Amino acid sequence: MLTEAYRSWQLDTFSLAAATGNQPLSSLGMFLFRASGLVERFGLDPQCLATFFLVIEEGYDDAVSYHNRAHAASVMHAMHAVLNASDLAKRVAPALAWGDDAPRNEALLKMACLIAAAVHDYEHRGLSNDFLVNSADDRAMLYNDRHVNEHHHLAAAFAVLRRPECNFMAGLPAADARRVRGLVIELVLGSDMSVHSSVVDAFQCACGGAFGGATPGGATPSVAQEADEATFAPNTAEEALLFMKVVFKCCDLGHLTLDWDLHVRWVCRLEQEFFSQGDKEKELGFEHISFLMDREKQGALETQAGFYDFVVLPLFGALAGALPAARDLLARAAANRRRWAEIDGEPTAKAEAISALRARLGMPKNQ
Predict the structure, then answer these.
(1) What's the average model confidence in pLDDT over 206-220?
(2) At which of 191, 208, 243 does a domain end?
(3) Cα angle 110-128-279, degrees, rounded to a multiple of 5
(4) Among candidates 190, 236, 195, which has minimal Cα distance to 96?
(5) Cβ–Cβ < 8 Å for 133, 100
(6) pTM of the full structure
(7) pLDDT for residue 349
(8) Which residue range is the domain that position 49 belongs to?
(9) Is the pLDDT of residue 222 over 50?
(10) Residues 155-169 pLDDT 10s
(11) Strand (E) positions, 144-288?
């Protein structure tokens, strides 16, 4: 399964979890670090690396429907797939100004990306930043209401890395370790949806406005169809970080490009997590229940077409314009958007179709 997934855009991490004794993240992480040559290149301690991945994996709560170890593994695979199918690292690493050893810098970038994917939702409790802030959660108090989840994921994961038995980077030069840590921090903080628009807008501006966007209804943008040579090579560290943040955001939303049945399974899980938070908001007496989180109203399944039009296709369109290898991802996203369009018809028929999807996956709206 992993060997086949190495050169594929697709990986069913639910099946991977079933095949590995519920260790999809650590199994995939060890495989990719070895197969990508990172263990050998940097002389990483395999035992420390394995322990790190196992501890991080255990920090993902299986009771959380969406932000769990299977999601982290899916994001890691998507990140690998983009790096493996493109010259992304070769184009971005020079702009980061990490030194003259280009192959080493590209490998450091790849390692940082895989680590970021592994830890980006570490110890997630299935609750949004807004919920943590509005409920005066301890994490919100600690991080001053800013990027609460993301700050916790990072701080807790780096605390794991500092343990002697988990510090697989102990042998790296201090400068390299700082570079990896810095990029991991940028990528994870950039995954906060509250900064989504600012990141994508800044990236499109850096690209000169030439890329991005998609037409409503799931059509891929003409730039991805016609400008076969369109690429973006960052000139500054700031542009390089923007590029990588957009890539990481696409990987974080990677289920939107997976085969239809697997994609719908992920949306159902996200919806269940949202409804669970909505239930908590009602218990706490919140004046307003968060959007899509009230199980008595429409959920994530009912709103996917709009999400694709306003968030997904513009995001993947921006990446596909700058990184030709990502055009396949845009095409896959557009194909799923068309499937949602088929469901998005007359209200009664739509409701029946959505109910059928929930029933097929054993995830009814009201439990």
Answers:
(1) 57
(2) 191
(3) 140
(4) 236
(5) no
(6) 0.93
(7) 82
(8) 1-191
(9) no
(10) 999 999 999 999 999
(11) none
